Amino acid sequence: MKKRELGRSRLTVSCLGLGCMGMSDFYGSRDDNESIEVIHRALDLGVTFLDTADIYGNGRNEELVGRAIQGHRREVVLATKFGNVRAEDGRFIGVNGKPEYVREACEASLRRLGVETIDLYYQHRVDPDTPIEETVGAMARLVREGKVRYLGLSEAGARTIRRAHATHPIAALQSEYSLWSRDPEDEIFSTVRELGIGFVAYSPLGRGFLTGRFKTPEDLEAGDWRRNSPRFQGENFQRNLQLVSEIEAIAREKKLKPSQIALAWVLAQGPDIVPIPGTKHVRFLEENVMAASLPLSEQDLARIDRAFPHGAAAGERYPEAAMRAVGR
């Protein structure tokens, strides 16, 4: 497994990470034993960059990851997030970036993960009611105390990124990026590259749509969050299927999976980009890992660009309320 440095931070991670969210939340049923098997197999394959958050399963995902990395802590670059707040019943109730909450959230994550230090600590969403300087200032204190090594932001806007980075160096920005979510190309990439901040791409497989596995919305389990996603509904679903068909054609020609083409495309967008595809199954993990060594020619990239140009996906990537929380 090749390595990549996140910007100029000196934080080196596997070029492909593992998103752990779906193991505990949002994407249907869960099987903790199988998920732990996936994490262990990832470590065997050199995927050592693990991503979780306190909101996933209301802490259950951090506990799961903590159990999985027992005895493996030195192998792992561990990332988690704070800031999104949910009620006990799972309802989203707001964003909190207040300094006292930053500390409270960090200490709770450390307990659940069973570690002394978090390698990369993200603010999950920007709190519009708390100046970013106050939030990042509190995060910086955690660095000085040794509870956190590096700081990150998730789905922040360019102006906020600059203000945050002026308060304390930001190692990574995590935002959605894939063939069907190319918004970071407009302003975010130029901003983070100017500042020397790495980019972590979540949902690089379009929440699974780019794998070609879903042919109708009914292919999703009951209770799967994606059933409420605009891109998985009605006419949008059908229009997006047509886009994916060209990726499937390229994959057939190369005797690869559509997911491998989609991941290889993300990796080809720059050496400072690290995709973190999530999966709950070992066979999909192994398919994803193969993409890390898959070269795409200039002709391949141009063909993919023609098939899936910027802005081609039908529908917003989140429902309206969640869209208001991105890019702040």
Please tell me about this protein's structure.
By secondary structure, the protein is α/β, with parallel strands linked by helices. Helices cover 37% and strands 15% of the residues. It has helices at residues 32-44, 60-68, 99-113, 132-144, 158-167, 188-195, 234-254, 258-267, 282-290, 298-307, 320-323, and strands at residues 3-5, 12-14, 18-19, 49-51, 77-82, 84-86, 92-95, 118-123, 148-154, 172-176, 198-202, 273-275. The longest helix is centred in the C-terminal third of the chain and has 21 residues, at 234-254. It is globular. The protein starts with a strand and ends in a 5-residue tail after the last helix.
Describe the SSE topology:
Layout: E1 3-5, E2 12-14, E3 18-19, H1 32-44, E4 49-51, H2 60-68, E5 77-82, E6 84-86, E7 92-95, H3 99-113, E8 118-123, H4 132-144, E9 148-154, H5 158-167, E10 172-176, H6 188-195, E11 198-202, H7 234-254, H8 258-267, E12 273-275, H9 282-290, H10 298-307, H11 320-323
Helix pairs in contact: 1-2, 3-4, 4-5, 5-6, 7-8
